[in-house]
UniProtKB/TrEMBL annotation:
This protein's name: Copper chaperone CopZ
UniProt domain HMA: residue ranges: 34-100
Domain of life: Bacteria
Listed transmembrane segments: none
A Pfam family matched in the record: HMA
Xref: InterPro entries: HMA_dom, HMA_dom_sf
Origin species: Scopulibacillus daqui
Length: 104
């Protein structure tokens, strides 16, 4: 009987732990967002725009993007099932751009 209680207790703990682990993803309010605006992006020359175009065209999950050099923004529409805005931001940083923020 004690063995059965221990097994049931262990299963309950495992279920609670699994629930907490999967619930953690729901805490990110931007998890289902499919559009992000990267602000403070330097697109002051044609070379910058070409580099941005090359960087964004290589990222999986991006559906479309629009650059606005005057406002220093890049609006990206992406598939949130395979991509996150933070990952796109990291790719832009790797390409030499340093977005100042992300708006959803």
């Amino acid at each position: 009987m004690l063995k059965k209680s221990l097994i049931i207790s262990a299963l309950c703990i495992a279920l609670v732990a699994a629930g907490l682990f999967f619930e953690r993803d729901k805490l990110n309010t931007h998890a289902n967002s499919n559009k992000a605006v990267f602000t403070g992006v330097n697109l002051s020359c044609n070379q910058c725009e070409n580099r941005m175009d090359q960087a964004l065209s290589k990222i999986i999950g991006i559906k479309e993007y629009k650059m606005n050099p005057a406002e220093k923004t890049v609006t990206v529409t992406f598939d949130h099932n395979v991509m996150k805005a933070e990952w796109i931001e990291n790719s832009l940083k790797s390409a030499g751009f340093n977005p100042k923020g992300i708006e959803y």
